[in-house]
Amino acid sequence: MSKRRMLVIGAHSADFVWRAAGAVATHNAAGGEALVVALSYGERGESGELWKQPDQTEENVKRIRHDEASKAAAAVGAEFQAFDLGDYPLHVGPQEVDRLAELMRDFAPHVVLTHPEKDPFNPDHPAAHAAVSRARLLTSGAGVASGFRTAPPSEFLVFEPHQPELCDFTPTVYVDITAVFDQKLAAMTHMAAQQYLQEYYAQRADQRGNHARKVTGNSEIRQAEAFQRLLPNVVESL
């Protein structure tokens, strides 16, 4: 049986760390394979600590961000790739969508994770969602026989945004990350350019763990991550 493959696509290099590092680690611990793609490094709008350094340059910021994200991905057992499309604003044109679709055909993920469609505070996140959604459709050929190379349709979920109540995000899936929470903490520590988010997302994992305990009655769940399915999941029975 082939490994179950997960593809996580963020607008910026650190997005996967805060929102889905635990799910990635859990996936890989179960024998899966995960690929993380950043459409940009977040070098202009999400690297504030680095820009405080004297004589800083954009290329050096991108180099540091690539190194941080690669180490964070390795901490949860994933591979990291960057498209380096630039941020604030992130523009994903037709050629870049085709590039993303080709990557999806090659990797053939069973599940794809990305940003929600709406985010009133970050213009790059909806741009990433639109690109991923279109590339995924082009990859699968709408799930029917096509005159071009396709991959089977994947599950499609969005990860939790910074302020879910303002992004029309309603959790439909909680992933218990208790057993791999130390890996998520390690991944977050690698993203030194955004240290201010580490405490916030550690607390969010505790909060979602509380919600997951209430849903399941399982008192052993301490931390969790929340996701929203965009497509129904198909099962053989309930």
Describe the overall structure.
The protein is of the alpha/beta class and 238 residues long. The chain has helices at 15-29, 48-51, 58-75, 94-107, 124-140, 181-190, 196-216, and strands at residues 5-10, 33-38, 79-82, 111-114, 155-159, 173-176, 224-229. Strands 3-2-1-4-5-7-6 form a 7-stranded mixed β-sheet. Helix 1 (15-29) packs antiparallel against helix 6 (181-190), helix 3 (58-75) runs antiparallel to helix 6 and helix 4 (94-107) crosses helix 5 (124-140). It is globular and about 60 Å long.
Secondary structure elements and their pairing?
Blueprint: E1 5-10, H1 15-29, E2 33-38, H2 48-51, H3 58-75, E3 79-82, H4 94-107, E4 111-114, H5 124-140, E5 155-159, E6 173-176, H6 181-190, H7 196-216, E7 224-229
Parallel strand pairs: 1-2, 1-4, 2-3, 4-5
Antiparallel strand pairs: 5-7, 6-7
Helix pairs in contact: 1-6, 3-6, 4-5
